[in-house]
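User: Hey, my collaborator sent me this sequence without any context and asked if I could get a structure. I don't really work with proteins. Can you help?
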Amino acid sequence: GWLPTEAEWNYAAAGGSEQRAYPWSNPPGSTTIDCTYANYNNCYPNTYTTNVGALSPKGDGKWGQSDLAGNLWEWNLDWYDSSYTNVQQCTNCCNLQDAPYRVLRGGVFYRPPWGLRSAGRDYNAPTARIDYVGARCSRTK
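Assistant: No problem. I've predicted the 3D structure and written it out in C-alpha cell form, which is a compact way to encode the shape of the chain:
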C-alpha cells in the first residue's frame, strides 16, 4: 500500500463519479448525518476518537471503506497548495512540489457536519505531532 494522493482519497470519499456529499450519501446529494454515521461534533466527548470501523457499515463509503469522514484527519501524499479548488479537473493528479504543509482530508471528531463533506480539506506540517491525525493506505485489488 501507499499513502493516497489527494485525488485518490477524494475519489474514494466521493464515491467516484457519484460525487457524494458524504462518503455514505445515497443518493449522492443526501446530506443525512448523525452520530451513527461518523464521529463528529464531539459525538463521543469522553473518548474523542473511536476505534476504526466502530460506525461500520452505516458510515462506510461506496466501496466499503470505514471512517472516510470524521474521527481523525488523514494524511495525503500531496503537499498543500491553497490555489487548489475542489472542482479541479485532472487525471492522476498529485502535488509533489515541496511545501511547508501536507494535505489532510476527512474531517475530525470535533468538526461540525460541514467539515466532514467529501470535498473538505485542511493541512498541517508533516513534522507536527498531532494526536488526531492518522493515515490510510491505498492499494489495488
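In plain terms: Helices lie at 6-13. You can pass these C-alpha cells on to your collaborator as they are.
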